[in-house]
Amino acid sequence: MQADGPRIRRRRERSGRGLRAFAESVGISPSHLSRIERGLRAPQPEVLAAIAGGLDCPIEQLEGAHTDERDQHDLALHDDQGVRGPRP
User: Fold this and answer.
1) Which end of the chain has the smaller Cβ count within 10 Å, N or C?
2) pTM of the entire structure?
3) Longest Cα pair distance anywhere in the chain, in angstroms?
């Protein structure tokens, strides 16, 4: 399974840590962390483990959503009344 970069970014931002300080605390460059968070680079397992440790969470919480969950989320729409539903 692959890391979910946007999820990593959200968790890091919610923790109140900036990109540079957090990257240095887990032993990677800020530019590398930025590429991971933007989904441009898949981290090596040991880097993902360091990020998870820095965020104090299990690696599984930083991995991509199951395909079924992602598909359901991506297909959801809002109609005129603000109700969510699948695409026709």
Assistant:
1) C
2) 0.70
3) 48
∠ Cα 51 53 73 (to 5°)? 60
State which residues form the domain around 66. Answer: 5-86
Q: How far is CA 68 from CA 26, 61, 63, 71, 88, in A?
A: 32, 16, 14, 5, 17
Rounded CA separation 73/65 (Å):
10
Segment 51-60, tens digit of pLDDT: 999 999 999 9
Q: Are the C-beta atoms of residues 62 and 6 closer than 8 Å to each other?
A: no
CATH number at residue 60: 1.10.260.40
Backbone angles phi, psi at 22, to 5 degrees: -65, -45
Q: Structural domain tally of the chain?
A: 1
Confidence of residue 79 (pLDDT cuts 50, 70, 90): very low
